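> example.struct
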């Protein structure tokens, strides 16, 4: 993705590095591995005239259980803690 952005900006690795204030090797490693510091990533994004968006790498699915209502009882209300959403029994 970084390489594509750099080439889209019409820059060599040396030109991008100079404009971002980092070494050419830093640009090379970032393009090859995708790993770099936040500062370098922001600098390169600015040089390439790109915006950065921070998104979670993984968004867990909500726990819907078997009812599809999350942790709720049959009427859609949150279940009280401790009873697992079951109705109390009469001592049985």
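> example.seq
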């Amino acid at each position: 993705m970084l390489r594509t952005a750099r080439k889209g900006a019409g820059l060599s690795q040396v030109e991008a590095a100079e404009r971002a204030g980092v070494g050419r090797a830093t640009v090379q490693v970032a393009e090859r591995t995708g790993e770099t510091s936040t500062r370098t990533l922001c600098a390169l994004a600015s040089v390439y005239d790109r915006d950065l968006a921070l998104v979670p790498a993984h968004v867990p699915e909500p726990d819907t259980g078997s009812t599809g209502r999350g942790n709720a009882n049959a009427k859609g209300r949150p279940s009280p803690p401790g009873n697992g959403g079951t109705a109390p029994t009469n001592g049985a």
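> remarks
Residues 24-33 form the longest helix (10 residues).
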